[in-house]
Amino acid sequence: VIHGRRFGRILVPAMTFQNCSQSPHPCINATQPHSFEQRWRHQVRGYRTSPAWHTYYLTPPQVNSILKANEYSFKVPEFDGKNLSSVMGFDSNQLPANVPIEDRRSAATCLQTRGMLYGVFDGHAGCACAQALSERLFYYIAVTLLPHEKLMDLENAVESGRPIHPILQWHKHPNDYFSKEASRLYFSSLRTYWQELLDLSVPGEQLGVAEALVSAFKRLDSDISLEAQVGDPNAFLHYWVLRVAFSGATACVAHIDGNELHVANTGDGRAVLGVQEHDGSFSALTLTNDHNA
């Protein structure tokens, strides 16, 4: 028996009963019904904290349905019987603690490097910043990892109006989404970033993964602040960039390429590695340090 309140960080629906027959307006000044038939006829469903006698029974299938609503699994495809990535697959899930949920997740393959990216973003005071990070950060990382020649190909394609080759293959749950309204603004900021990388880079040279992660984190943080300061003529975008900047989020990202694993984080999001011991048991190894004020 689960009551209509937060239980295990899940808000479940409660069923309440009210007598509306004596009131001129539905459910105003309602008193306790005189019969079970009346109570059943005038039931009102809603999310609310309720006394102990208002209960809602969840069956095991219903519990599983709640737990699996945002579940996502992906198996990395093989070519000629060989897996080109050291990652065989991954599973991710979300369980809302708030309604709407403030957290976001992302997973993608870098098409130019074949490395895989995974990220978890914990939104603060809303989902706006976490949503922006889930859409944008991987592009900044992927662009930073590109060699000078690939960056030049990107810029030449945009300059000449030709379609650009995708740099990421996203692996998203059907409920995950991108903000179409902000996509043009996001692309403009990303292009400015790779133009600066072109000016600073030298043909034949390429940043390492660790340096690329740090650079991408810092640059996106700077762009979010700058976009909020400059604003936008479009009323929705102006409101959106302010929400992104003023809400905030943590970010924890892992990049896996071959046998190399790099992890970057800001805030208190943690990455934990499961290590199998010689006896077959597993131990948990924390890979990040919390950044707390």
TrEMBL record:
Q: Which gene encodes it?
A: PDP1
Please state every residue range assigned to the domain named PPM-type phosphatase.
Answer: 87-293
Summarizing the function annotation, the protein's role is: Mitochondrial enzyme that catalyzes the dephosphorylation and concomitant reactivation of the alpha subunit of the E1 component of the pyruvate dehydrogenase complex (PDC), thereby stimulating the conversion of pyruvate into acetyl-CoA.
Cited SUPFAM superfamilies: PP2C-like
Q: Which PROSITE patterns match?
A: PPM_1, PPM_2
**Location in the cell:** Mitochondrion
**Subunit architecture:** Heterodimer of a catalytic (PDP1) and a regulatory (PDPR) subunit.
Q: State the superkingdom.
A: Eukaryota
Does Acetylation appear among the keywords? yes
Q: Under the GO molecular function aspect, what terms does this record hold?
A: [pyruvate dehydrogenase (acetyl-transferring)]-phosphatase activity; metal ion binding
Alphabetical list of SMART domains matching this protein? PP2Cc
Give the family from UniProt. Belongs to the PP2C family.
User: So what does this thing catalyse?
Assistant: O-phospho-L-seryl-[pyruvate dehydrogenase E1 alpha subunit] + H2O = L-seryl-[pyruvate dehydrogenase E1 alpha subunit] + phosphate
Q: What is this protein called?
A: [Pyruvate dehydrogenase [acetyl-transferring]]-phosphatase 1, mitochondrial
Q: What class of enzyme is it?
A: hydrolase
EC numbers: 3.1.3.43
Which cofactors does the annotated protein need, by name? Answer: Mn(2+); Mg(2+)
CC per GO annotation: mitochondrion
**Keywords, A to Z?**
Acetylation, Calcium, Hydrolase, Magnesium, Metal-binding, Mitochondrion, Protein phosphatase, Pyruvate, Transit peptide
